[in-house]
Write a structure and sequence with these properties.
The protein has 119 residues and is an all-beta fold. The chain has no helices and eleven strands. The strands form two sheets. Strands 2, 4, 5, 6, 9, 10 and 11 form a seven-stranded mixed β-sheet that branches.
């Protein structure tokens, strides 16, 4: 059973940094990619960035510059470094893992970790 667990959220002051971690366990094989998403109250879930098992990264245009995604395939861990946080970054941050199987793609979501940025 694949489990996805996010950690690192909390209350931070505007301008500060925070590092989130996503740990995947129970994987039957190497993931294809892992992505970080976020969802603010009353808004749709949005992509922040993804990283493939070969280290290729992709960022949503709106997130380029302050956020950096990094991964360690040996430990099945992907981090999201967030700098210069703003109140509008307040959201629940989710990790999504994608596997490619013989029958197609399968993805798993974590429960999310809350980040609250105070002004």
């Amino acid at each position: 059973q694949v489990q996805v667990v996010e950690s690192g959220g909390g209350l931070v002051q505007a301008g500060e940094s925070r590092r989130l971690s996503c740990v995947v366990s129970g994987s039957p094989t190497t993931y294809r990619s892992i992505g970080w998403y976020r969802q603010a109250p009353g808004k749709q879930r949005e992509l922040i960035a993804t990283i493939s098992n070969t280290g290729n990264t992709n960022y949503a245009d709106s997130q380029k510059g302050r956020f950096t995604i990094s991964g360690d395939t040996a430990r099945n861990t992907v981090d999201l470094q967030m700098n210069s946080l703003k109140p509008e970054d307040t959201a629940t941050y989710y990790c999504n893992v994608i596997y490619i199987t013989s029958t197609g793609a399968i993805d798993y979501w974590g429960q999310g970790t809350q980040v609250t940025v105070s002004s």
